[in-house]
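User: For my dataset I need records formatted as: sequence, then structure tokens, nothing else. Please produce one.
Assistant:
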Amino acid sequence: MAQCVQSVQEFIQDSFVPMVAVLCSEDAEKVTRKNNLNFSELLRPFCRLTSEGHTRDPNNQVQVVKNLRISVNNVVARPSVPTSGVPGPAQRRLLSEVVSACQPAEGGVANVITAGDYDLNISASVPWYSDWRDTLTELSTSKHYTATTPWFEAYRESFLQSMPASDHEFLNHYLACLLVVSSSEAVPVEQFLKLSQEQHRIQHNGEYTNPKWFIPNTLKYYVLLHDMSQGDEQRADSVYEDMKQRYGAQGCYLLKINSRTAAVGADEQIPDPWSQYLNKSSLQSQDQSEEPAPAPVVVNNTAVENNVGGTPEMDGHDSAENDGVSINSLDNTHPLQLDTASDTPGSLDSLRSVAVETKTTTVYTGVAAGTSHGACLTLKDHDRLRLFIQEFTFRGLLPHIEKNIRQLNDQLVSRKGLSRSLFSATKKWFGGGKVPEKSIAELKNTSGLLYPPEAPELQIRKMADLCFLVQHYELAYSCYHTAKKDFLSDQAMLYAAGALEMAAVSAFLQGGAPRPYPAHYMDTAIQTYRDVCKNKVLAERCALLSAEVLKSQAKYSDAATLLIKMTSEDSDLCSALLLEQAAHCFINMRNPMVRKFAFHMILAGHRFSKAGQKRHALRCYCQAMQVYKGKGWSLAEDHINFTIGRQSFTLRQPENAVSAFRHILTNDSQQTSTQQGAFLREYLYVYRNVPGVCEVALPQLPLPCINSSATRVYFGHERRLAEGEKQAATHVSLDQEFDRDLAAMWQDLEEQVVAAANRGVVPATFYPTQCCLNSQTDNLRFPLAVVEEPIIVEVAFRNPLKVPLVLSDLSLLWKFTLKDFSRPQPQDVMVGDAVTISNEKEAITPRTAQKDDIIATEVIPEFYLSSEETRVARLKLLPRQTGQLNILGLVYNLASTPSTGDSTINSNASQGPSATEGTSVRGRQDLEIQGPRLNQTKEEKTSVSHGPDRRLDPTITPPMPLLEVFFLQFPTALLCGEIRKAYVEFCNVSRIPLCGLRVASTHPDFFTFGSSSLATPLTPLSPTSFENCSAYKTLATPSGATPGSVTAVTLVSAADFGSGGGGVTGPGTGGKRVVEIPLGEGTLTPGESTQLPLWLRGPDQEGVHEINFLFYFESAEKGGKISHRVLRHTVFICASRSLSVRATACRSNTLPEEEREEEGKNGSMLVFVDMENINTSEAGVREFHIVQVSSSSKQWRLHKCINPAEDKDCKLTSRERGKLCFRATRCKPHEATSKALEKYTFADLSLGNEQIISSTTPCADFFFRRCQSSASWRPPIVVETQGRHSRSQGAGPGGGAEDITGVVRKCNEVDLDIIVLWKAFVVEDNKQVILEGQLHVALQTIGKEACSLTQKEEAQEMVLLKFKPELPPPMTRPSMEQLSHLIKTNLHYPESYSHPFIQKSLCMVPVTLTLSNCSLAHVDAIIDLRHKTTSPESLEVHGSFTWLGQTQYKLQLRAQEVMRLPLRAGFLHAGVYNLGTPRVFAKLADQGAMCETSQQTATPALIIINST
């Protein structure tokens, strides 16, 4: 139970006090009425004695009486009325009003108890449940806490005081009567006589059963009341003296009051001790009848709480109501039933019934509000009243009680002489004056017998009650115990239960070594009262006393069980209070039972609600919510929230009601769709019926849920779709998913193009363009938007309910600050000049004129969300002026659909739900986006702080140019290496001219706009000519030209094709990744469009390739806040297999001196080109024709084809292979001038009747772009390392300063690029189409095969992660393979030789060994002619052949020197011999420590020896 203000001993003592009656004359009443009080009310604050009294028991032992209180009441005689065991209507109404009047104090200190994981605020004034944790001020760790329930104590006090007097006990019978006469009476003594006779008539006349009197000889105490302000004091004194002579000094008293006059001390503040007693005035059985009377009763919030229909029920005929209070139909439901009786909005009867009520304040009827009491009394009069009570008690009442105890004791002692058995037998035979009410068979089912007043059993009970009243508990217990036995033996169950009850209380109150509390006495008494006697009132009193005793002994479990057992359907108010106290018992146990506390609080709240106690019901539900909230008990939470919402609405607490309903709707509810629909309708109804909720500001709506962090903002026009054959640039749209890697790639491209536009330097103010902002983008800066370009905000809605929602008139809320960016901006200092404009007022009423001249706001008429659906809405703003825009949130009408069960209605259908059909509320939701957590400084790491997220705060800037790009005849599929011509159209759709058009791409080798320096007159200029004309610059082969011979040799500079010279990415160019797009006059005026050709080349790798273009452009009007704009385009190209080309370079055996003059004497080599058709015929390709092979190099060029086809080009069908052999020569000496160092020599070898000029667009463009893209690309502001095309020529002979590796490498270096040009014949739509393309092969080293396809292993090596910067590689020694190519050897000998072996057995043949130094340094060579003898095969082959003469030579060759060495070979037999046996070892002359390396010899040299 809750903590009480009184201790249990004080409570029991105050529950049973001596009763004193009052009879006043009319004049005496007039004297007291001056103070707005009658005489009993006048004495009531002074009825507790402040000093101790003393009595003597029958053994003459002194008994101390402490803290005694007496009860003084006016006598109201009533005729005999049969008493029932249930409270009457008037008593019910009184108790209900007492509980209603006692409400928890607001703002009290929270009292917190910790139980397990719970911190429960169990104060009387519980805060609103959603904020209860904020009110915790301290944690209580003590066993007992200080939560009080004053309404329970007030109920208990009023209940005990209003109990009717009973015949089976005497505790509330009157012991004495005060006869009060005014001193102003003519003959006061006669008035005393009349009053005495009246008292005698009331007590002894049989027609009155109420009030009841304790003993026949009632104490009469005569009080002379003197009005000090009017009466004659001397006369009063003389009358008093006469009274003392007549009644004795112990039996009368002169009481002087009203010492205060109106003129004297009008400003003096006198305390008013009567108010608290009058407000708690009760219906005593002698004060009021069952009919309405003007006695003080308490009414609090009458219209709202106790009678929701309007006026309180004040007559006694309220059988249809509980606790004398009208009960709303809302409460006639099961305790856990949540939904209303019907699913239509018309079922909100309970809410509508209270919607018309007015809030009332506390009014006390019977006593006018604001009436002062004791206005004529001074503090001295207060002391006189206090002294009067003390004198009356000590001199009159206590001696009277003591005398009666002695008399009763003497009577009982005298009777003990008789035999108990004889006495019983005498009573049995002669009746003893007892009258049986029922037959013997019915005794156990009734209250038993009725004793006459003089029955000895009643005398024992009467003595026990007197002893109890004067705190002589030991003697009282003995008497009760004796009476209990007598009553039980007589089957007088009502009397026995009363004796058991008081025996238990007396045993508990005994001082010294107390008896153990006989709880079983109380249990038996309660059961007897309730079950046998059918008296609920006495059973309830017994339970209240026992529960307090058990609580004081910390037996909370027993107390809770007892209280719960006493609940019934008879009285909702009583059951609610008992259940609440039981809940407090559970929470106050040694191990608090928190869930039982909450459960019984819910039950108590339900019974409070049925009893009309709405405030107490709300408090109970709020306290229970602390336990259920956040623990996953969703259905229980919904029930509690729903009840809290209804009760709060009834009590005119709309904020709390809305908050409770909000919790039901926003949590993940497990209710059925029907139930959720009812919740939603009630929530909307609450909003609609709260006055003024939508008039000043829009309320925050809980539905639908908005994922603010998922909000995306898009700046700019939505892209146009394709127009006919035109394909628009993809750019950025809200339909695209954000990819962090892609965003980094676009930012990298933008940095490159910005650097290219700013002379190789990225400006410090550069910030990457972000057209679409989301939670993963960098939102720390204010985004820049352009005036007259829309801003689209995508908001993610989620409907958590199982019922559909309809949002209507959905739009954005914003505020806008005007700024003029065209003027200089020291304006930031003068912020006061800025004008802030908002559309919040206009948004309150939909379909009103918006501020479209500032920001045009799009309104979505209807937005439908089906059950549990997540859907995005895109809302548009069109800024008309420059300034700072802040998007605040959304405004819309929220409505529930009429048919809550149907969740599949199409919003676009004509029969779809409309917001006007159901209840709708207009409100808002703010878009509050939390920025990223800051984690840079130490303070930020140790605390949780977030940076700003400004995606909803764009700055509106002045107009900027806007570019649209369209592609014509742009393919989606190409063969690997295929060349296709397309067209690009650039349109300026803004009002501002644009310039500085550039494009950057992740695949610069995929496209080219052509070389601006070289005219291409033979290139088709229109799209319609594509089918008949080649994309290349073509010429007819000169007549008489041999197929496979060189038809054209051209010198071309890489700078002509934007390569920046030798592949070096110079500052300001951005490398080949950034291309300037030529515009006619450098600008594109508003509305102008231009069309440019674009050549495409299929990627070398098959598969689907994602190719990204970034178009960059600037405004012709400089100085704006936005320096440039970009447009993105992504294409996907599916590349199919075409040809695989492999090439190998071999040294030619011919020496430079043997070559023809026109071929130069700089050396030659053989190039083998192996081609395979690897196309799988999926694209319908029938065959490939190799129409031309071209070369490009600074040092070498193809000279002629050795094995051309006779009269047609090389043709390859599916899976066929072909091989071509070419002779390559070094460039002519006049071509290798210093001016031509940076120029490439292009040589074309046509294999058909057409010559393609490879040194022009597009062939040369793709060649140079292919060279650059072969290396991994880096940001443009970093100078790339030199590629293989920028190797300088080696130093001349004697360049000893060069490292060995460089010398040896250049010996084997080729640096020759082969360009294979082909045509393919494809059948498309029953029509043959000719495709053309080119493949590149880069030959770098002699003998090492090169392929047109990049090997996968190489690609994997390219992407290996490196966590440390690469150190320069250490100086490595040349490999054996590199050193084996220092010297080229050749044998000169006759192919056949005849010799007469019969005449001369030894045949000697002269052979010349030619040595050629291929390097640019001096080389030491050793020639060893000895045969190897390591294997038997060599012996077998070389056995009959030997070299004659010197067999080992040591020579030194200068750089590129050719030396001939004459040798002689000896043969013994005729046959075929291989002369290629000389072994040549070489090393660099200046490397003394290096060993000679074996050189690669030529092919086998076979000689035929004939015998003649």
